[in-house]
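Quick one: co-fold with S-adenosylmethionine.
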Amino acid sequence: MKLEIYPFVKWAGGKRQLLPLLIERMPRQYNDYFEPFIGGGALFFDVQPKHGIINDINLELVTTYKTIKNSLEQLITKLNEMEELHIKSPKEYFYNVREWDKKDDWLNEDDVTKSARFIYLNKACFNGLYRVNSKGFFNVPFNNKTEIKSYDLKNLRNISKYLNESSTVILNEDFEKVCSDAKKGDFIYFDPPYDLLKDDTFDSYTKTAFGKEGQIRLAELFKELDRRGCYIMLSNHDTPLIRELYTGFKIELFQVKRMINSDSSKREGEEVIVRNYGNEESNTLL
Ligand SMILES: C[S@@+](CC[C@H](N)C(=O)[O-])C[C@H]1O[C@@H](n2cnc3c(N)ncnc32)[C@H](O)[C@@H]1O
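Sure, here it is.
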């Protein structure tokens, strides 16, 4: 039975809006479920596949998925502690926590502390953005909230239960490596960093941007997996590059509101869903 679950972080490019459109476009039947750019995991948490392989290049995000799976109670205790310290002096505490990754021994810190910091910063920073500078240090400013509610207990408990009861594999690799074992009949959902629109600036989930080179590498992998007989679905902005890279596949266009953009005039855009299989093989006859 499916549990009630939704993403535990706000994530740039989060797919909660496109969700119904993605769900009806999934294949009716498939073997393993792959999501190499998991981010907040909107589709994954909704589908709750029995055999999932999820991955992201963001180490702190992946560590947090693992901590929710393996050490939930310690994580909750730590988040409660952080929320209390936040109330006492919100701005000072936020900037103090933001600096933790500059400490020499930060990488040796335990996963519960790293994960609690990751969730706290996501809830206490401006717009839930994740952005690091060229040295890899988190640099999003404070959202000025005096009180932070960093988690929904029922949701975290359900995520932890689901991750423990399913045979989900959680990885921290480049997307290409993760798909090397995908076989005929497996389903892969690609939700990469967006191809940039003319006036865009956000491409930095990590210290190196994904860029045009990443989009080209991904399209090559898409074609290789298509030859293998996998079901593949991908979402991205509607740009000339994406149209060119996926010529010959099924491309559908949708209008969406974009949540993470400080300039409200840029909050609307056109996105595409690309697939290598047709409506007749989809969940819902479209
Ligand atoms: C558009 S977001 C995914 C959003 C997600 N579908 C959701 O619902 O929140 C893209 C993700 O790709 C990750 N990423 C960027 N480059 C990557 C790479 N080379 N390999 C794997 N993941 C990568 C980013 O860290 C980010 O979480």
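If it helps, The pocket of S-adenosylmethionine is lined by residues 11, 13-15, 36-37, 39-42, 55-58, 174-175, 191-193, 205-206, 210 (CB under 6 Å).
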